[in-house]
Amino acid sequence: MELSEEELRLLEQMERALVEEDPKLASTLRGTSFQRAARRRVVLGAAILLVGIGLLIVAVLIDVSTILQTVVGVLGFVVMLGGAVLALTSARHPGHASPTVRASGKSGLGVVDGGRQHRPGRMSRQRSGSPFMERMEERWRRRRERGL
């Protein structure tokens, strides 16, 4: 459901008032700090991944006991795996609190369709669920007719 012009105007007035009253809260709600934190976690995860790869290379190159090589190799693998998981989960879900996009296309605190973000390639529930609802309504009508 799209917002009317009047609702959009009121929403923008409320946004301006919020920014004037509490700019830090507005920045948090806008999601800029969340995006920066997600970007930092991706970079940190990539750095940890590289350290893990370095440990694996060191394990192969060191010429000491087999036990020490195994320990360093396993440690390198675990560090590498942890860095990869950190980087990939941060890159995959950066927007748990990401900003919504207004109907006008501008990013900000705006709300579209009740605040739900649309994912491309997925059918909305209304479209996919409408035949189901029609069947349920038809069954309900038939039951009421039989009962009367």
UniProtKB/TrEMBL annotation:
<protein>
    <recommendedName>
        <fullName>DUF3040 domain-containing protein</fullName>
    </recommendedName>
</protein>
<keyword id="KW-1133">Transmembrane helix</keyword>
<keyword id="KW-0472">Membrane</keyword>
<feature type="transmembrane region" description="Helical">
    <location>
        <begin position="42"/>
        <end position="62"/>
    </location>
</feature>
<feature type="region of interest" description="Disordered">
    <location>
        <begin position="94"/>
        <end position="148"/>
    </location>
</feature>
<dbReference type="InterPro" id="IPR021401">
    <property type="entry name" value="DUF3040"/>
</dbReference>
<dbReference type="Pfam" id="PF11239">
    <property type="entry name" value="DUF3040"/>
</dbReference>
<keyword id="KW-0812">Transmembrane</keyword>
<feature type="compositionally biased region" description="Basic and acidic residues">
    <location>
        <begin position="134"/>
        <end position="148"/>
    </location>
</feature>
<feature type="transmembrane region" description="Helical">
    <location>
        <begin position="68"/>
        <end position="88"/>
    </location>
</feature>
